[in-house]
Design goal:
Layout: H1 8-22, H2 36-56, E1 60-61, H3 69-83, E2 97-101, E3 109-111, E4 116-120, H4 121-126, H5 130-145, H6 148-157, H7 159-166, H8 171-180, H9 188-202, H10 211-224, H11 230-234, H12 241-252, H13 262-270
Parallel strand pairs: 2-4
Antiparallel strand pairs: 1-2, 3-4
Family: Belongs to the peptidase M48 family.
Cofactor: Zn(2+)
Protein name: M48 family metalloprotease
């Protein structure tokens, strides 16, 4: 690739110059200097580091372990319905995979650039039905597909740091980014957009497309009881979140669908 022909300092100057003059701002007014290929390269490195982090803790459920085969079959069945909805921008460009982290105390999920999704067992067990799971996963898929994660990382660390990670430099910083990715906070605009696209992604599927709203209703009730799910702390409420999701679902006329929870209950049971 072209970037391999330049020293990192020269590459950075080139990218910043080109980005300032030619990179279009998104609908939220944010400019992303990263290319889609950079998203994929950074995502691969961050995912590898994230895998190592949770593997060392004994919390990563390995796909290669036969004991986890059925859990991944069930989870992939949900994820693939969302991915194959025909609504993603980077369905074919990003590798898209999902991994399970064994921690029943954490009700959270997060995405790297380039479509690597991580979900904690605590979140899966917290949910009531498969539409809620599809809705939350759709929300995380949207953060990757709308490139929110890359934009948020660029805002937090700066483009020079991210480019150094893409170039395979600064391994200590890579470890920091991976360790903190689950606590990465998004803007209110990004949260609203991820909620909206969760509905859009679920619309062509069998799921009730307001599934994410069901999760937020339950999470907010728990927060009022004094226990705040980590997902809410890392995904700030943009205001009237449930109402906005339900309004989008009503607009698309895709709410109120019922699906069998047999597979979902099996997934919760075996985790």
């Amino acid at each position: 690739m072209l970037r391999l022909l330049f020293k990192p300092s020269l590459l950075l100057a080139l990218v910043v110059t080109l980005g300032a003059s030619s990179c279009a701002k998104d609908e939220n007014g944010d400019r992303l200097l990263f290319s889609v290929d950079d998203d994929k390269a950074l995502g691969e490195k961050v995912a590898h580091e994230t895998d190592s982090l949770y593997r060392q803790k004994g919390q990563l459920l390995e796909r290669t372990d036969s004991k986890n085969t059925r859990a991944y079959q069930l989870l992939d069945g949900v994820v693939n319905k969302v991915l194959n909805s025909g609504q993603l921008t980077y369905r074919n460009e990003f590798p898209w995979d999902v991994k399970i982290i064994k921690d029943d105390q954490i009700q959270n999920a997060f995405a790297t650039p380039g479509g690597h999704i991580y979900v904690f067992t605590g979140l899966i067990k917290f949910l009531d039905d498969e539409s809620q799971l599809a809705g939350v996963l759709g929300h995380e898929i949207a953060h990757a597909d709308r490139r929110h994660t890359s934009k948020a990382l660029q805002q937090q660390y700066g483009i020079s740091v991210l480019l150094s990670l893409v170039l395979g430099e600064n391994p200590n910083q890579l470890a920091v980014v991976a360790a903190n990715l689950g606590q990465l906070k998004f803007s209110r605009d990004y949260e609203k957009e991820a909620d909206d696209f969760s509905v859009v992604y679920l619309n062509p599927t069998q799921y009730s497309c307001d599934g994410a709203a069901g999760f937020f209703i339950k999470a907010q009730a728990q927060a009022e009881g004094g226990t705040d799910p980590e997902f809410l702390s890392t995904h700030p409420d943009p205001g009237s979140r449930v109402e906005a999701i339900e309004a989008k679902a009503a607009e698309l006329k895709c709410a109120g669908r019922t699906v069998s929870n047999t597979s979902f209950e099996e997934l919760k049971r075996i985790l």
